[in-house]
Each structure stands twice: as C-alpha cells, then as structure tokens.
Design brief:
The complex is a heterotetramer, with 2 copies of chain A (138 residues) and 2 copies of chain B (119 residues). Chain A is an alpha+beta fold and 138 residues long. Chain A has 4 helices and 5 strands. Chain A has one domain: Histidine kinase-like ATPase, C-terminal domain (Heat Shock Protein 90, 2-Layer Sandwich). Chain B has a single domain, classed as STAS domain (Transcription Regulator spoIIAA), CATH 3.30.750.24. Classes of the chains: A alpha+beta (138), B alpha/beta (119). Bound molecules: adenosine-5'-diphosphate (ADP) (2 copies).
C-alpha cells in the first residue's frame, strides 16, 4: 500500500490550548476527507487522547495531521512525537486501565480501538511516536 | 450562580447545567465546583447535565462528567446526563468507557422525568 | 444514650447522630459502638448521620462512616449520611473514594424522607 | 521556578493529636494564603492523610507547613519527614488501593490527586519524605 500525503499540518503540543487546536485540526481534516460523523468523532477523540498523552507524560512534543490517500481511499493520518520518558511496559500501557498519571488509563487502548491503523515506537528514555490512520468508508 | 461561563438554570426542583465549553484541565475543576456550590445553595433535588453541545467527549471529559455525578450524589443529589450524541456514545463505548454508574437520558424532558421531586 | 461527646437523638422512628468532633482513631470505635448500642436499644428503623459540621473528611473518617453504615445494615437498620459539603464531596471523589454503597441526602429532612418507618 | 518561603511551622507527628494539629495548621495557612474553599479542603485532607501515614507506618516524624510564593502565585507547601521503614514498592504504593495496614490504601494516591505538586523520596530503611504544594488559582 502506497500512502500519498496530500496535505500536512505540523503543530506544537505544549499547552492545553494546543490540545484543543490539534483536536480541531483533526476534526476539520476528517470532515474535509469525507469521513462519516462517527468516523470524525473517532479520529477527533483519538487526537485528543494522544495529544493529551504528549502533554501529560512528555510535557511537550508535536502533532502532525495529514490528509492522505491510498488505493483510492481517502483518510486522515496523525503522528504524535515526543522526546519524553518513553513507555517501559508497552503491553501493559496498551492493555488499558493502567495509568502512571491520575487518569483512566484509556488513552492508548481507547485510541487504538477508534482508528483503522495504529503504530507505536517507544523505548525508555527515547521518547514516543504514535501514528494512526482513519479511512473513509466506501 | 456561576463564576465561569457555564450556565446553571433552575428547572422546577432541579438544576440544569448546559456544557458548551470544552472541559479541559483548567476549567474542569471550576465547572465541578460551580455546580456543587449551586446544588448546595438551591438544595436541588436533581441535577441535569446537558451535553448536546459537545461533539467530542474524550476520556478526560467523560471522567469529569462522571466524577461530577459522584460528587453530587455524595451531597444527596441525583444526576442525569442528557443529550449524548450518537457518535459520542459510539466513541465512548468503543474506547471502553461507557460511564459506568452514570444515569443518562435522551433529552432534558426525559431526564427531568427520571428525577425525583422534593415536593 | 451516648458515653462520648456525640449527640444521638430520636426523631420519630429514627436515630439522628450529629458528628461534630473529629473522628480520629481514639474516638472512632467508641462512636461506632455508641451508635450501634443506641440502634439496638431503640429499635430504630433508620439511622441518620449528619456530617454538616465536618469541614474535612479524610479517607480514614470516610471509612469509619461507611463502616458504621455497614454495621447498622447488618443489624437491619438503614443508614443515610446527610450534609456532606460541596468541598468534602469534591475531595472524596478526587481522592478516588466516593463511598460506594452508602446512601446520602442533602439534609436531615431529605434523609428522613428516604428512611422507612417501622409503623 | 523559584519558591520563596514566607513562613514555616515545624511540628512533631507522634500522636493522633499531632495529626489534628497539623491538619488545623494546614487549614489556617491555606486560608491565609487565599485558597478557595475547595482548595483548602484538598490541602487539609492531604495533610491529614500524609500525617496519618507518618504515624501509621513510621510511628513518628515531622511535618512542616509553609506559606510560599512563586511567580506571583501564592500557595502552601508541606513536607512530611520520617525515619521509618521507607516504601519498597513505590509504584504500587502510589497506584492506590494497596495497603500494608488495615486501611483503604488511598492516602498516597489520593493526596497526589488533591495537590498541584507531589514529590516523594524514599528507600527501604531510609525513611520517607513527601513534599506537596497547593497553589491558589488566579
Ligand atoms: N507519550 C507518552 N510518553 C510516555 N508515556 C506515555 C505516553 N503515552 C502514554 N504513556 C504511558 O502509558 C500509560 C497509559 O497511557 P493511557 O492509556 O493514555 O493512559 P493515561 O494517559 O490516562 O495514563 C500512561 O499512564 C503512561 O505511563
Ligand atoms: N511514611 C511512610 N513510611 C513507610 N511506608 C509508607 C509511608 N506512607 C505510605 N507507606 C506505604 O505505602 C502504602 C500505601 O499508603 P497509603 O496509600 O497512604 O495507604 P494506607 O496508609 O492506607 O495503607 C502503605 O500501606 C505503606 O505500606
């Protein structure tokens, strides 16, 4: 599968307000790509969870929201990148209900369930990169 | 009645809170505190939280809403969350957070019917 | 009726206990024992614990209160905790302790209305 | 961030009555610093939990309650110090719901959620120091 990037927005994630900005950008791009109301809510919610994770666990990082196309399908790709502490116990963090912060521990596991593709690259001390894609249905 | 931007109205014996702003960290605590102070002041029998205006409810906001219901319950006031949109409901359940223990209704009228009256 | 400093009053079929003192280790057990002894002696239908006077309820005191409710329930008497202040409700929920299984009411009147009558 | 200490009260924590004294001092200082009713309840409850932990797990220690200022913000800092057994499994103790005593196991995790800053220094056999700060909102 070859993914073509039609448009990309890079944003800093350093404040609560940035989380709102990333969320709105995700929503706008998803809408523009013709995703359904349900798919828009899903990708926008994932944007919120993953941007909040950058803020909560790494203090700062970046988010990129992209309009993408592949095999005639239209979609939204998002990449969340930080140089924070990384995730030592990834299986546990992905299982859900586990949190090192004062929250529900549903951000990673929940986002994964909301998108079509989910990739995570992380190691202790090496930061974290989460990439997700949501496709429009035919 | 409110120090923030969140409107709190009396409807018969109950309080109706309409959430429109995004409830991020900086306003979530103020939201809860405004609502609880209004509950105490009015002695409301029930609390309706209308979220029709929210097109996104992430796990953080869901937690703020369900915590608010728990706080009100400790004070003796029942909460019903009304107006959760179809796409928000679907997203919450897919994420694995169906707001356990929180009562919900389709709209304000249905919600009011679920609350007890003090009279 | 009480060996301690905690007033226990009869209100119709029910007992009304007003907690004013801080319930630290040394008085918590005496509090529970006084209340249970009064429940037995009076055959009270219900027990109201009024905590309006408490501006702080830490996890220890919350546990003492909910344990007292469980003890009374084992004796067949329903408990309602009344008068939890807004800031106390918020603190308990934020700490992760929403007193599961405990019935609550805004004030003594509301609490009385929730209790069954023996007659 | 530079924190200025405007006033400090050191108290022994050796009896139940000392726990009450520390709690009252925390409440009075928080009130004096202009914290809201909700913030006062939060810091006073944390004082109670942390002082009780000193008593329950280390038998004795000290508490210091400070009026502090930083970046024009006004706050309350508290330091709880003991030479008790220390905490061997800190992540577990902080996760909440875990207790080596016959209590709820919500003292540490709960206090952490009630304050704005939370630091803990501990090692088996080396005692425990917990430092917390609660700021007044603007
Ligand atoms: N960007 C990140 N950097 C470091 N750790 C992270 C990051 N995202 C998630 N984690 C770790 O994974 C855990 C689970 O994440 P999540 O499911 O989002 O729950 P929460 O953020 O509510 O704790 C977090 O508690 C944290 O330890
Ligand atoms: N000051 C301390 N010294 C030693 N151990 C402590 C201290 N504070 C907490 N702990 C340990 O951490 C555990 C969890 O603490 P906490 O959440 O306050 O629960 P609790 O005190 O109810 O057991 C305690 O059971 C105890 O093992």
């Amino acid at each position: 599968m070859t993914i073509r990037v039609l448009n990309r927005d890079e944003m800093a994630v350093e404040t609560e307000h940035d989380v709102v900005t990333v969320r709105r950008k995700a929503q706008a791009v998803a809408h523009g790509r013709g995703l359904s109301t349900f798919a828009i809510a899903a990708i926008t919610t994932a944007a919120s969870e993953l941007a909040r994770n950058v803020l909560a666990h790494a203090r700062r990082g970046t988010a990129s929201v992209e309009a993408v196309a592949a095999d005639g399908r239209s979609g939204v790709r998002m990449v969340f990148r930080d140089d924070g502490p990384g995730i030592a116990d990834l299986p546990r963090a992905l299982a859900g209900g586990y949190s090192t912060a004062r929250s529900l521990g549903l951000g990673l596991s929940g986002s994964r369930r909301l998108v079509d593709e989910f990739e995570i690259e992380t190691a202790p001390g090496k930061g974290t990169v989460v990439t997700v894609i949501k496709w429009a249905r035919f | 009645m409110s120090r923030g931007t969140i409107p709190i109205l009396r409807v018969a014996d109950n309080l109706l809170v309409t959430v429109q702003t995004e409830l991020h960290d900086q306003v979530a605590e103020a939201f809860q505190e405004d609502v609880l102070a209004a509950v105490e002041k009015t002695g409301a029998a029930g609390l309706l939280i209308d979220v029709t205006g929210l097109d996104i409810v992430d796990s953080y906001v869901a937690r703020v809403l369900s915590d608010t219901a728990k706080m009100a319950r400790l004070m003796g006031t029942e909460t019903v969350i009304v107006g959760i949109r179809p796409e928000v409901a679907a997203t919450l359940v897919r994420m694995g957070y169906a707001m356990p223990g929180v009562r919900t209704a389709l709209n304000v009228d249905e919600g009011l019917a679920m609350l007890p009256s003090r009279r």
